[in-house]
Amino acid sequence: MMNDAAMPDHLMIAPILIPLVAGALMLFYSDRNRQTKLIMGLVAVGLTFLASVELMADVKSATEQGGTVVGLYRLGDWPVPIGIVLVLDRLSAMMVMLTALLAAPSLIYAAAGWHGKGQHYHSMFQFLLAGVNGSFLTGDLFNLFVFFEVMLAASYGLMLHGSGPERIKAGLHYLAVNLAASLFFLIGVALVYGTTGTLNMADIGRALYWLDDAERLLFHAAATFLGLAFLIKAAAWPLCFWLPPTYGAASPPAAAIMAIMTKVGIYVILRLSLLVLGPDAGPSAGFGASVLMIGGVVTMAFGMIGILGTPELVRKGGYLAIISSGTVLAAIGFAQAGGGSSMLGGALYYMVGSTAAISAFFLIAEPVSRNDEGDDDAPAEDDGFDPLSERWAPMGLGTVEDTTAPASQRTVSWLTMAICFGLVAAMIAGLPPMPGFIGKFAILRGAVQDNLPASGHLPVILWAYAAMLILSGLGALIALMRFGIRRFWAEEGPTPRILALEVVPVVMLLGMIGLQTVRSDALLGYTSATADALLEPRVYRSAVLAEAQDVRAAPVQSLSPDPLPEPEAEAEPENGPEEGAQ
Amino acid sequence: MELILALAIGILVGSGVWLLLRPRSYQVIIGLCLLAYGVNLFIFAMGRLYVGAAPIMPKGGFVDPTAYADPVPQALVLTAIVISFATTALFLVLMIASRGATGTDHVDGRERHP
């Protein structure tokens, strides 16, 4: 993207605009036209996916031409550190694509009936996508807050979709926790602005260099507040108690797309900790890395205990999300502390696969535990209620009920679900052919390869991480297999009705996971290049701020971009670069 | 002015946190409101305190920026107010729904001592 100074790459804003416009357009239709809305939603997701493919191709080709090139999109064409920018690099391209890939199955699943259980499901879904994509693409801290809130506001609606006391109760907690987290976010943003005078993420990293000790202390406080907000979102250990009840209470398609939301928290931590507090940040280098390392490992342990302890399948899904978060968070901490990039590359690969698997897990969990012991709170979607069931019955997916004594009550859909469940469990546990294994293997190999030769021995925390990586997989395997055997093998009697529209999305997600195995060399290459790029924040910074110097020279009063008015810092004037006190 | 502002923020946030940890959903929402006020004042203070300075610069030419209040925190505060207002409204709706669905205003949906 060397030549986009002349013509901005408008494609970059497409992943935000397409869902936003689609979601708004849907509001014009009555909620009765759910099929129309569904088709609009699918088209929007498809277009977003195409845009993300194109963006990823851009990033890849730019990288191959030489160096890590970061795409920039100046909103309203305001000069860089003053206006808001969208920044596209390998990581954000990958995350945007992952979002689009998870969105389609969730939408199809919702068509099986869930989207009819409340109002404006499809609009909220699209707004959620817009918020998520915006969070991935923005390069401005406050804009990140706004997109975060767009995402959260939509998620409140999605989480409450379908109503019912259980959901309202969990929603109340979810809302309170997230409002508090948003306030932490705001405090952090304000402190960052107060100390560095800028909100552009790349500019913060640069301005950090000139901070004196007192301001640096304040900046660290800001980083702590921001970290707290994002760790709540990413569900790190002491801050993760909201997650299992919330995701457990949410309707399955909503939970499936909300699986990406924990990854938004992780994405921001990854972005900020490596860009601002990375190895080249002077006295602030590695700030918070130990919290991420230890917190990540403890989070994994907590998730493992939780998944073994809870009897409900949906809640197990919540704990799986916690394990996945912990794994990636710890890897970020190690990378920030200088543990090498190949570990981070493996963790990113693992994150893609595990997010898809968790999404699939939430889709499987509800149909599989349908007509369970706790029948009363499971929303009964029984005979004739769902108009779509008749449409799909000719596919042979209805239940066998008119024979007097069938040899086996098991239906194709039930068996498919059972197989899918087994595959997802294998993926999450990290059994060999699945990407979970490849990702964990890459993490472990990176950990040993990069850290052993340097000092001759591995630090204790790395041992703990390696142990938890394996143990958490084992815990997940035990818990899921115990459930699977009890539910799919041991249980006799009629199986619940499972619609084709509920099987198809799961198979799609599994296909994606399978593709990730088959093309693991390509994806692993991509993620390790991403990790390399993340560990060189200077490239990102100079790419974002390259044009900043041009535009800053444009006003009559030319302001040299680099030296901040350091001598006046004690008097605490407004020393932001955009205000440019001379 | 600094002392008054600091005290105001401290009192607002302190009472907000205390109320947030209370068991009644009405207390929680008031706590969140107070917290939001405190945080908004804090953002405002991060632009440094000015007395009698305009945030908007005149058009054309360049001016001495130190004579003007920082407009960025004001924009941030405006956005933050709108967002926290909207989410608080949503919380209120949810609170009433929770009261209707569970029959109690306890945040857990049931009383500890029945």
TrEMBL record, chain A:
One cellular component term from this protein's GO annotations in UniProt: plasma membrane
Record's protein name: Multisubunit potassium/proton antiporter PhaD subunit
UniProt organism field: Paracoccus versutus
Listed Pfam families: Proton_antipo_M (PF00361)
Region annotation (Disordered) ranges: 552-582
Residue intervals passing through the bilayer: 12-29, 38-57, 69-88, 95-114, 141-160, 172-193, 217-243, 255-277, 289-310, 317-335, 347-365, 412-431, 460-485
Membrane association type: Multi-pass membrane protein
Subcellular location(s) per record: Cell membrane; Membrane
Automatic annotation (TrEMBL), chain B:
Keyword Transferase: no
Membrane-spanning residues: 6-21, 28-51, 71-97
Annotated compartments: Cell membrane
UniProt keywords, alphabetically: Cell membrane, Membrane, Transmembrane, Transmembrane helix
Membrane topology: Multi-pass membrane protein
Main location: membrane
Domain of life, per lineage: Bacteria
NCBIfam families listed in its UniProt record: PRK09094.1
Sequence similarity: Belongs to the CPA3 antiporters (TC 2.A.63) subunit C family.
Record's protein name: Multisubunit potassium/proton antiporter PhaC subunit
Organism per entry: Paracoccus versutus
Highest classification ranks of the organism: Bacteria, Pseudomonadati, Pseudomonadota, Alphaproteobacteria, Rhodobacterales
